[in-house]
From TrEMBL:
MF-aspect GO terms: tumor necrosis factor receptor binding; zinc ion binding
Name by which UniProt lists this protein: RING-type domain-containing protein
Keyword tags: Coiled coil, Metal-binding, Zinc, Zinc-finger
Residue span(s) of domain RING-type: 43-81
Amino acid sequence: SSIESKTSETPVNTANQLNSNYNGREIGFNARNKDNIDLKYCCRLCLFILRNPVQLSCGHRQCKSCVDSIQGEIIKCPECQEASIKKEVLPDRAFKKDMQTLAIECYLCDWSGSLKDYEDHLQQFHSNPICEYCGIQFNSVNTLDIHKLNNCEKRVIFCTLKDFGCSDPIVCVEMRNHYKTRQHHNAIMKLVGRIMRTASTKQYERPLEMEIDTYPHSTTMTIPPIDDDLKAKVQEIYETINMFAHGFEILDDDAQRLSNELVNINNTLTTSSKDMTTLQLSIEEENSFLNGQKLNYEILSQDVASLKQKVEDMQFTSYDGMFIWKITNFNEKMEYTI
């Protein structure tokens, strides 16, 4: 690859192996001041303070339970990549004794003290801790730490490139989406630019180091001295990233345009929906009016049929050849004629 690092594919695979093998095992101690403790006292696999430290053949130390969780008989050190045979890894009792005086701040309460008293404190006062991210309760601090290390989808973490612009906390399950954002791509460009400046100034006395969160575990990436050939490759990578960044801007503009069009379509649909509602009410009113007219028509039809029947009945009435009619004020009219 163009950028060599101390964290090759093997440690990442090791971390993946740990994911499925941590259950039922103890991992290191978590503490509120963990980031302020010397890295030599921290396990580079679980990223916590060493619990029952063992020493690899290279001299670096890991938690015994973390080493036991790794599948296979060969262990590669996450820091230097040197291989060790698992059965030759021995407990470092002297180092463990030196660690007992470490100042520890409990991450679950305000307690502070030495490491030698920390485990007793956790067992006595935090026997059923609750995950602050998802609210699930556990039967020990160790199972809580394993949950937050591997399984809690609601835990808040920081991007690998937080020192290069990705400084916002991110919910664990949203990390993949974060990798697609312009913010993350700009941070990558800043990182590559820093590598280029390091190469151009020839400042090789101290390798450039940064913390890398290889989800769900974190590890350290070291950028070694860069020769001319590697510098050319980095330049090629930088140009490729620029090309992708330009393409990302185009896609972002297209996405914005489509978003605006979608808003317009939604507005049109909203207006059309209102018009449809008005039209539906109008149709319902028309139907109601027509139903009323239909009822009136039926009544009139019945009246017409009744009148028609009366006329027909009158046409067939017999009075034996005599006409009968009614004369009003008959007496007055008779006197007038006499």
